[in-house]
């Protein structure tokens, strides 16, 4: 191909340097030199055309091979993306199932413990209230008996009234104190149950966050390539 261009350049030079014909745009060129250059071009063209065709043939083969390789890579990427998506889906479903089972178990245990604590607290509260009521009634009876015994003595009677009132007030205070202790006990157990429920909710939230976490960058790129097809 180089000889073809070289011969063409020489032809251009010959034409440019040729002597012009007066009163026309024609020129006089050396016929022998021009014919010789044309023969060189004619002889060089077949080989150069064959070389160019070989390049074209190789180009088509290279393009075909590249297309085949690209198709294979796309197919592999699609298969890998589908496999990774399936694994991620299965992993997420397994985590969600485990979190749900753990939450159900924790809630069931918490409900059972809450029922047990509530029942114990109720029983203890009833016992303490009854004990306070019994103490109050005994104090009233003691006050009445003491009042009857001292009814004939004015100062003693007044003292008996005061003592009876004091005993009654102490009985009320004891009953109130026992009731407050019972309420504090029940409140403490309810707080423990609240902490247990909070821990369970954090476990469930963690499972949900893991489920929403993004795929690795390679898998995400494969999915994007797959969707772009």
Automatic annotation (TrEMBL):
Read off the Gene3D superfamilies from this record: F1F0 ATP synthase subunit B, membrane domain
Indicate whether Coiled coil appears among the record's keywords.
yes
Q: Which organism is it from?
A: Saccharomonospora viridis
Q: Which UniProt keywords apply?
A: Coiled coil
Domain of life, source organism: Bacteria
Which segments of the protein form a coiled coil according to its record? Answer: 67-120
* Protein name according to UniProt: Cell division initiation protein
